[in-house]
Write a structure and sequence with these properties.
By secondary structure, this protein is α+β, with helices and mostly antiparallel strands. The chain has 6 helices and 8 strands, in the order ββαααβββαββαβα. It has 2 domains: about 70 residues; about 80 residues, Alpha-Beta Plaits. The protein binds iron/sulfur cluster (2 copies). One iron/sulfur cluster binds next to helix 4.
């Protein structure tokens, strides 16, 4: 059996490692499935073949899978046949580094300052309700935490920089 792809994706407020997403998205794309809300149950059912998805977190997983599939469709639409390559940081695959902003929705007032500020387009407005969310966590530059400083509501947090030293074995 060939090895399945593996990716970390943001589910709710936490990163979750998931197997088989590239393969699943490729099949859906080839079948002409549009990345709209109705696809949520299908995404969950397919993802469960290779991943454990706890029932209480279904809604978060469905939203995360739909977001990732949208990104995948956009990339394929631009002619890229592969999932995003997030590269490495100091020799470590980016997807293995839990460095990205956590946005506290109860504090955030959706002012959009972080959306405008981040050059990597990590934040975005949700299409349905215009809430700000962390759309592309792994595009965040490892070690950067500048957006936390521009947020007037102090709604953005990062891991402590010492976490990176630990990761490097320091
Ligand atoms: S800058 Fe802060 S308050 Fe404004 S949208 Fe971003 S997280 Fe929310
Ligand atoms: S820390 Fe820097 S790269 Fe990461 S989301 Fe904030 S502004 Fe963007």
């Amino acid at each position: 059996m060939s090895k399945l792809s593996y990716h970390q994706i943001l589910v709710g407020r936490f990163m979750s490692g998931m197997s088989g997403l590239d393969e699943m998205f490729g099949e859906l794309y080839e079948a002409g499935c549009a990345p709209d809300e109705a696809l949520g149950p299908e995404l969950l059912a397919r993802a469960r073949k290779h991943n454990y998805i706890p029932a209480p977190a279904e809604a978060d997983y469905a939203a995360a899978l739909l977001r990732e599939y949208r990104t995948y469709c956009e990339q394929r639409g631009r002619g890229c046949a592969c999932q995003t390559d997030y590269g490495t940081w100091r020799g470590i695959p980016r997807e293995q580094i839990p460095w990205f902003p956590t946005l506290y929705e109860d504090l955030c007032d959706d002012c959009g300052k972080c959306v405008d500020f981040c050059p990597e387009k990590v934040f975005a407005f949700r299409e349905d309700n215009q809430d700000v969310y962390v759309a592309s966590p792994l595009k965040c530059q490892v070690g950067c935490n500048q957006c936390a400083r521009v947020c007037p509501q102090k709604a953005i947090s990062f891991p402590p920089p010492t976490m990176l030293q630990t990761l490097l074995g320091g």
